[in-house]
Amino acid sequence: xxxxxxxxxxxxxxxxxxxxxxxxxxxxxxxxxxxxxxxxxxxxxxxxxxxxxxxxxxxxxxxxxxxxxxxxxxxxxxxxxxxxxxxxxxxxxxxxxxxxxxxxxxxxxxxxxxxxxxxxxxxxxxxxxxxxxxxxxxxxxxxxxxxxxxxxxxxxxxxxxxxxxxxxxxxxxxxxxxxxxxxxxxxxxxxxxxxxxxxxxxxxxxxxxxxxxxxxxxxxxxxxxxxxxxxxxxxxxxxxxxxxxxxxxxxxxxxxxxxxxxxxxxxxxxxxxxxxxxxxxxxxxxxxxxxxxxxxxxxxxxxxxxxxxxxxxxxxxxxxxxxxxxxxxxxxxxxxxxxxxxxxxxxxxxxxxxxxxxxxxxxxxxxxxxxxxxxxxxxxxxxxxxxxxxxxxxxxxxxxxxxxxxxxxxxxxxxxxxxxxxxxxxxxxxxxxxxxxxxxxxxxxxxxxxxxxxxxxxxxxxxxxxxxxxxxxxxxx
Length: 477
Known about the structure:
This protein is mainly α. The chain is 58% helix and 5% strand. It has helices at 30-36, 39-42, 46-62, 68-87, 99-111, 124-160, 180-203, 224-230, 240-245, 248-274, 302-309, 311-325, 340-362, 368-373, 382-390, 396-412, 423-429, 437-440, 443-448, 458-475, and strands spanning 4-5, 11-12, 165-170, 173-179, 207-208, 235-236, 282-283, 365-366. Strands 1-2 form a two-stranded antiparallel sheet.
């Protein structure tokens, strides 16, 4: 058979026909080919496809389904393709239908008829399901490490700001005095859950789908367990009908990406607020800020805004996948080819956002004085007045009313802080209040006296920092 090289460095000829073309008397319309082609999306799984094919070919040889010589030739050919793809001497031919077709055709061009035996006992249905699992097992740990890097960055900043006062907010109103450390560690706690969600999702792709065939398995003596073991899976999937139509893992990972993205968006919302003149808690590096084309004075938190703005993409990817599988009958339907683009887009988006946010927050500077000022006013220490009375034996509900009365008295007197209320006025609210009240309700005292686990006191945030550091060290892959 004569072949000729294409501009992409691959070969053309019979080996590069569509894998399903034998039943058809004429080829598909060029527009139809372009419409169904997925190689631009699935090319990133080339190495995973090769690794799965090596395991499959080895099993075929061990089972006597093909000769061991043919198996060895296939494996050697696949390793050669892997090497050439890695060093750039082989370029992907984008005229191929998908990455699986390209690799099989290239293999057959190189080793001859033995290459045509690679697909024995295998369908693209179970092959795709395998490739996606192998790809996710390879790249999700990298994303998890990016999450850990951001957690470590936040903990490192928090360690330096365990004493830096910052108001806590509820309903965007002053709530209680806290610290910057406490706030940043709250972000780290959100990220820990993101890491754990991905870890849980990885457990649910620990079973190999290969050997499920197109839908009903195979009449050939395939050893599914051998392939699973060689690829590092814990076992094999239970039901072939379910296996080839299952895209739960795509939805689950994209859901985890969407939640991670929502956390990044919430963090960026606060960064945007804090970088404003009204708050001025944080000063972003000029490396991670932009200006205005008309207003020369502007320094805009564009990167935080872009991360926040790209949340819609990830949410859309999740909705895409959920809608794709809605109402699909068992088993495989070509709709499922559309799983990869939203999955990969969501992954790429959150990975890029993580890296940018980490660099942006690591280079930021913090206005400690302005943050401390935020704890003044707003009666953020009212709860501390109530707890002062609780320690003197007053029921909390009664103490709550007394503290509220003190706030009302201060407001009526034109005061903005409970610390400005004279002791006589305090005593009119409750005779249990003594002169030591002022030492108990300063913003720093309010913060330092909150020593319960997870609270903003320096001792508590120090413990939280150590926990984050330990978690990251134990789980980095």
